[in-house]
Design a protein that fits this description.
alpha+beta; five-stranded mixed β-sheet
């Protein structure tokens, strides 16, 4: 089952992805058993209670309690999946761990129809934002006069992260509800206006060269994408971003280049 499902699933590049996939496999096993079982029962009923064998209708109904036992059994299995697997796994995914003290913090703000990415720069502190400063060239309203904003890096529809380092995405929205969906990282979380929702994950695999953002990633089927999994308006179809996982050195080099672009030419 696992090998079969992996043929249709995106690459798993996240530390918690294996646990997500395992839960999906268990759910698919349950659905497979139910599908086969009810299909066999349906075929049996078609022959057992066909008109030729039962010319006169019976109004007594079934006197067996087998269906009740089966239904109770299904409920028990679903409760086990929920309490033993799903809820504990969810608690681990949403709770920051000790290693996340050194996590890379990134703000990702959705809007119709783009993902705005905000890095705190080399000082690790997000600069001040002001709604009155928002325009076409400054979609986040970043106040560059703030001392902490001088080295902040902003991108549109491009997310860069290092491999083997915890990432904490601070998710929000400027207008309507969006849904931050990163299948390769096994991440999906609604972005809700007026709220900042943390999303934690760690990449364990660098982006293959064919899927990197340099050289026209958008044209490659192998791109690692950021999608919006919530219908957010007429332009929902084009709310598509891309992300790249670097080595730590590669990420540091990339960040240094972005910060250097912010400095005025001598």
């Amino acid at each position: 089952m696992k090998a079969f499902l992996y043929r249709w699933m995106p690459v798993n590049a996240s530390a918690h992805g294996e646990e997500v996939d395992q839960l999906l496999i268990l759910i698919h096993w349950l659905m497979a058993v139910l599908f086969v079982g009810w299909s066999i029962y349906f075929i049996y009923v078609l022959f057992r209670f066909r008109a030729g064998r039962n010319p006169k209708a019976s109004y007594e109904g079934s006197k067996s309690h087998l269906s009740t036992y089966i239904e109770v059994g299904i409920v028990v299995v679903e409760v086990i999946l929920l309490l033993v697997f799903a809820i504990p796994a969810w608690a681990r995914w949403v709770t920051p761990h000790a290693e996340e003290a050194n996590a890379l913090r990134v703000r990702v703000i959705g809007e119709q129809y783009a993902w705005n990415v905000h890095y705190p720069g080399e000082d690790g502190v997000f600069g001040r934002t002001d709604i009155h400063l928002i325009d076409a060239t400054n979609p986040l309203g970043l106040d560059r006069s703030d001392e902490f904003a001088e080295d902040d890096v902003t991108m549109i529809n491009q997310l860069h992260i290092p491999v083997d380092r915890a990432v904490s995405v601070l998710l929000g929205s400027k207008d309507v509800i969006h849904s931050f969906s990163v299948p390769v990282m096994r991440v999906k979380q609604d972005a809700i206006p007026g709220m900042q929702i943390p999303v934690h994950f760690k990449a364990v695999m660098a982006t293959p060269e064919a899927a990197t953002l340099s050289g026209g990633c958008a044209a490659e089927k192998s791109c690692w994408e950021i999608g919006c999994a919530q219908l957010c308006g007429l332009g929902h179809y084009r709310m598509r971003g891309f992300f790249e996982v670097h080595s730590q050195q590669g990420y540091d080099d990339w960040m240094a280049k972005q910060v250097a672009k912010l400095k005025p030419a001598a």
